[in-house]
Amino acid sequence: MKFEVTILGSSSATPIFNRNPSSQVLNINERLYLIDCGEGTQQQMLHFGVKASRIDNIFISHLHGDHYLGLLGLLSSMHLNGRTKPLNLFAPAPLKEIIDVQLKYSETVLQYPINYVFTVPDKANVIFDNQDIVVESIPLDHRIDCTGFLFRQKKRNRKLLKDKLEEFNVPIEYYTALKKGVDYTAPDGTVYKNETLTSAPEEPKSYAYCSDTIYSESYFKQISNVDLLYHESTFLNDMLERAQSTYHTTALQAGQVALKTNAKKLLLGHFSARYKTLNELLDEAKTVFPDTELAVEGKTFVIEY
Amino acid sequence: MKFEVTILGSSSATPIFNRNPSSQVLNINERLYLIDCGEGTQQQMLHFGVKASRIDNIFISHLHGDHYLGLLGLLSSMHLNGRTKPLNLFAPAPLKEIIDVQLKYSETVLQYPINYVFTVPDKANVIFDNQDIVVESIPLDHRIDCTGFLFRQKKRNRKLLKDKLEEFNVPIEYYTALKKGVDYTAPDGTVYKNETLTSAPEEPKSYAYCSDTIYSESYFKQISNVDLLYHESTFLNDMLERAQSTYHTTALQAGQVALKTNAKKLLLGHFSARYKTLNELLDEAKTVFPDTELAVEGKTFVIEY
């Protein structure tokens, strides 16, 4: 099952050169999930061939402009392009007021419904659940209410081994039980162990998105052992004081988060506009956590083992 | 005196490929005036080297998203980049509410003041006046309240001919009167005609920006004889009915506006996303008004005679 993330924006606060404000799109089993939506996200989607019509769920971490100012343009384009199917929007409650006031004055009535799920900043909550995944909000510690998002694939059924089922004449009505791991007892009393007739499914994968936060161990337990950890790293560690006063993380600290939470891999993002190139940020995180990459525009990271 | 316009966005409603929503920057005597501010305007400014710090006046025609959704990001970047000098914002009154609600929830207090001048849609008004120009709002006819903007250079003083002033020993205290066109009478009674001592200034130039409107003669008188007319041309004329039902103009009609108002030159813009290339729009307008160009991203048009 596909599980990959494409970066649409990597910049903090102000855009710079070819770096846009935060946005990413997750593709999980060919369903697209948009995470944050900074200004220019819809243009980035056009640029990288991401179809807005395939997005049914949008997650907004907080209400600093670099994380949501592209949303109204995207919602409007979905409307103008004939969308009628519902859109789920996971975000701090005031976002509804911000959207409504703008729709009101543009005299726009969207042709599709938005289902709002309001995030709360002080408690991890399951906010979404479908056949593929469960999504939890991650309480982060930023200047304003802010949550990250943890995407966990569900445990999948065991896979039937068609040739073995034929060989042992297993009736079709046992297949569902076999997928769940039950053994098969034939009419003659022979017991076939489940492992003989099925193979193990892929391990469920997980992705944690930690957008804007001061270094804080409060969310470490929740994100422990993820396959891929995206963590903001706004500054180099020589600007630790500035990072702390603005409730941001340094690249060194992001490496420490990955190390302490036993992440399999780390993505750095949300870079300050002061860094024209990003190698120093990458190198600094790697001193602590070697398997680190830069979440830069247009790159797709496949979550594997 | 410099008088030129650079196009930052040419698209209507939804962005497409390399076409961004409406925005333009006027450079008049090295002062920059931003007109409309669609999503991604600040990124376009970075791309084309337009410094936000040089902009003190922003004009927003109306509150459809493709004309203002880039504004909050730009205001925010100005704040983060240390701006303290006031910004004048000419726009429909509800824009203040839209800005204020977003600043409230991001807990941002801008470090510079915004002076709002609210436009009214039903009457042409002088809304700005400085040493170089006068700006009038142009009542347009769109689905929601919408004004265009007419920028007129002020008539300048006549230019002193230094060699003639020396030749005829004209005392310095007469210079101000000479610049206004007054003749000089010497102590011996000799009258020197003003034209002998001064030369004519450049003719004042004018630029009309007609953003979103149905074809309507109601504003023709106000914009007559401009040096450069920017007019929306969302559709080809084979979509006239659609243009009328959405309160837009066709390329053919834009040509007719330029012809009937005696514009010196016409710029077409605000192109529907359905047109992958723009030649047909240009050709259609030229059948009526030959001196027409496409207002596409990155192009600068110098307003000359």
What does this structure look like?
Two copies of one chain form a homodimer. In chain A, strand 5, helix 3 and strand 6 form a beta-alpha-beta unit. In chain A, strands 6-5-4-3-2-1-18 form a seven-stranded mixed beta sheet, with helices on one face. Chain A has a seven-stranded mixed beta sheet with strand order 7-8-9-14-15-16-17, covered by helices on one side. The first copy, chain A, has a two-stranded antiparallel ribbon with strand order 10-13. Chain A is 23% helix and 27% strand. Chain A has two domains: 255 residues, Ribonuclease Z/Hydroxyacylglutathione hydrolase-like (Metallo-beta-lactamase, Chain A, 4-Layer Sandwich); 41 residues, no CATH class. In chain A, helix 8 packs parallel to helix 9. Chain A is globular. The longest helix of chain A has 12 residues. The first copy, chain A, has 305 residues and is α/β, with parallel strands linked by helices. Chains A and B meet through helix 1, helix 2 and helix 3 of A and helix 1, helix 2 and helix 3 of B.
Give a short overview.
Two copies of one chain form a homodimer. Helices cover 23% and strands 27% of the residues of chain A.
Please describe the topology of this protein.
2 copies of one chain form a homodimer.
Chain A: E1 3-9, E2 23-28, E3 31-37, H1 41-48, E4 55-59, H2 71-80, E5 87-91, H3 94-105, E6 114-118, E7 126-129, E8 133-139, E9 147-153, E10 159-160, H4 162-167, H5 175-179, E11 184-185, E12 191-192, H6 194-197, E13 198-199, E14 206-210, E15 228-232, H7 240-245, H8 251-260, E16 266-269, H9 279-286, E17 292-294, E18 300-302
Helix pairs in contact in A: 8-9
